[in-house]
Write a structure and sequence with these properties.
Helices cover about 55% and strands about 10% of the residues. With about 375 residues, it is of the alpha+beta class. It has two domains: about 55-145, no CATH class; about 155-375, MetI-like (MetI-like fold). The chain has a five-stranded antiparallel beta sheet, with no helix packed on it. α12 (about 330-340) runs antiparallel to α13. It is elongated and about 110 Å long. It starts with 6 loop residues before the first helix and ends in a 6-residue tail after the last helix.
Length: about 375
């Protein structure tokens, strides 16, 4: 008997597939772009990476220093492609108004009566009855077919020449403590709000919830001013790693405490009562019962906090100096975007490098992610 098609389930699956494709496509495109030749990347999209591309380029022939005399002619020879394999010229021009004026095999004649012959592999022969007098050669406009080309040169340049490697390490130095410190503090705080009785507990919880609506941008300058005063008092620079760790910890306390409290509060009360009957203290209950049962919640909050800190730009700009020993990855990419906005190969490669650690963290802990997020939503 044929099972009836559940259209709602089918629709949800298709919708899920649609969002997965929407999310993966830019990431895949960024990865392909980071491996492409910089000249091809500048003129075509990543979806053309496996096809032959028509490329319009401008080259300049060598000047008078390269000329030789043969059979009564002064001749300059050279190659536009520098022995680049696979690239083939289809047509060329000697004027920007007619870049496809001549086909391969035809001879271009300049106003000074000198002649140029362009070959498919990029070789050229420029000859004249008169001696060449200019240091720079004339410009040639070419239309050529360029085969697909992938290279790791972009990664070599980004990691070893552009300073992103050091920024990558700096970001790890910021992200790991800024994730672990609030997680440790909030785990104790959330347990106290859930299972300990003390005066003002509900008021404290209301303050935590209310602080979720405070915009981050409003508190940056006041906090930095306080840091500067404290730093001047103790002779410590406010813009430093401890400063940015405390800033991220403070900004993450409210949301982390709220999520952990919801999970810990959902744990069965009977376990806590049985532990107290056996003489366990709050510290013992927290270490032996709460921590093992809260691994999904810790993992999901770790992912959220780490992704927020790793992708942060604003806090890093305010609380760290933009020097090689402190600049974080997002600030470095912003710097590259400002100084080298046309070098897309640098930007795409740097952006993909910045995505590797968050993707790795997510895939390693993703099985806990959903369980941790929904664990406190239903009592039972």
């Amino acid at each position: 008997m044929i099972k009836k098609i559940n259209f709602s389930s089918l629709l949800s699956q298709l919708l899920l597939l649609f969002f997965v494709i929407i999310w993966i496509t830019p990431t895949f495109g960024l990865f392909i772009s980071s491996l492409r030749d910089k000249d091809l990347l500048a003129i075509s999209g990543w979806w053309t990476s496996l096809t032959t591309t028509h490329v319009n380029e401008i080259y300049r022939m060598s000047g008078k220093e390269e000329q030789i005399e043969e059979n009564g002619y002064f001749i300059i020879k050279g190659n536009f492609f520098n022995n680049l394999e696979g690239k083939k010229i289809q047509s060329f021009g000697i004027s920007s108004k007619r870049i496809n004026q001549f086909k391969i095999g035809e001879i271009g004649i300049f106003k000074d009566k000198s002649e140029v012959n362009i070959f498919e592999n990029g070789d050229y022969i420029w000859k004249s009855l008169n001696k060449f007098e200019k240091k720079k050669g004339k410009r040639i406009f070419t239309t050529s077919l360029s085969p697909p080309k992938f290279t790791f040169d972009n990664y070599k340049e980004v990691l070893f020449k552009e300073g992103i490697g050091q920024a990558f390490i700096n970001t790890l130095a910021v992200a790991i403590p800024s994730t672990l410190i609030p997680l440790i503090i909030c785990s104790f705080f959330a347990y106290a709000l859930s299972w300990m009785q003390f005066f003002g507990r509900d008021t404290l919880l209301a303050i935590v919830i209310a602080s979720l609506v405070v915009p981050l941008q409003m508190s940056l300058i006041p906090i930095l001013t306080i840091y500067n005063d404290i730093g001047a008092l103790f002779g410590v620079a406010a813009k430093s790693y401890p400063g940015v760790w405390m800033a991220h910890t403070g900004f993450g306390l409210a949301s982390t405490t709220f999520l952990l409290r919801n999970f810990i509060k959902s744990l069965p009360n009977e376990m806590m009562e049985a532990a107290r009957v056996d003489g366990a203290s709050h510290y013992d209950i927290f270490l032996r019962i709460i921590l093992p049962l809260s691994i999904p919640a810790f993992a999901s909050i770790f992912i959220l906090q780490f992704l927020w800190v790793w992708n942060d730009l604003l806090v890093g700009l305010v609380f760290l100096d933009q020097v090689p020993s402190e600049i974080i990855l997002t600030a470095k990419l912003k710097e590259l975007l400002g100084s080298r906005g046309e070098n897309w190969e640098i930007l795409t490669t740097g952006a993909f490098v910045s995505m590797t650690v968050p993707l790795l963290i997510f895939f390693l802990l993703q099985r806990y992610f959903i369980r941790g997020l929904v664990a406190g939503s239903v009592k039972g």
